[in-house]
Each structure stands twice: as C-alpha cells, then as structure tokens.
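Hey,
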Amino acid sequence: MRASRWLVASAALAVLGAGAAAQSPAEFYKGKTVEMMIGYSVGGGYDVYARLIARHLGKHIPGNPNIIVQNMPGAGSLSATNYVYSVAKPDGLTLGMPGSGIYLDQMLGRKEATFDVRKLAWIGSIDQRDLVL
C-alpha cells in the first residue's frame, strides 16, 4: 500500500475506530455503513471530493464498510457541523466534511455555532489554503 493511502486509512481508523473499542475494527465495520455529512450542495467542490473519497475509503477500513455521502447544505457548512457534533452518535459511523474555515464561526462567537472545534476529531484536509485574518 502506498504511504499516502496508508496514512489516510490510518487517520480514518484513528477516528472511526473510536466506536469499535470492544471488538476488532473488522468485526465492528463489517456490514455497516459510514455516513459522510457534507456541508454543501450536490455538485459543488466539496461534494465532488466527498464522493471521490467515499468511492475508495471503505476498501481501506477493515471490514469494508459502505460509505455514503449525505449533503446537508446551509450556512457555509455550519448546519452539517452542528449536526455531526450535536446529533450524530459518536459511534465511529459518521464523518463530517465542513468548509475549511468552519473554525471561524466559533472563534468569532457566532451563536449558531453549537460545536467546539477543539473537541472534533480531525482526520485531515482535502485542500491546503492559508486563511489569514
């Protein structure tokens, strides 16, 4: 396995595996579905990235779970991030793909941001941008 694939799979398992503590990852994920909650509409850049990742990610997780993409557009991915943080079960079966600047909603004190970015388990980023204020 190429190093980059191994890194992505390992990082994903580090977060996803949280729900599989009592059993092996392969046993936990076999026959399960992992949802990727995308904070933007169908057809946009994040949606395309998510669908590309979803097509391949399950093959790199023991147990080969199905990966499905769910779009939850609204407020620049604020709605999806709030959902992943506050509603989705922390069982390792839900991933979020918020906008790269989602942390600013909390930092700027936006009352609609009900999440704490420090408590989210971050896997990585699909792009590299330097956001400067």
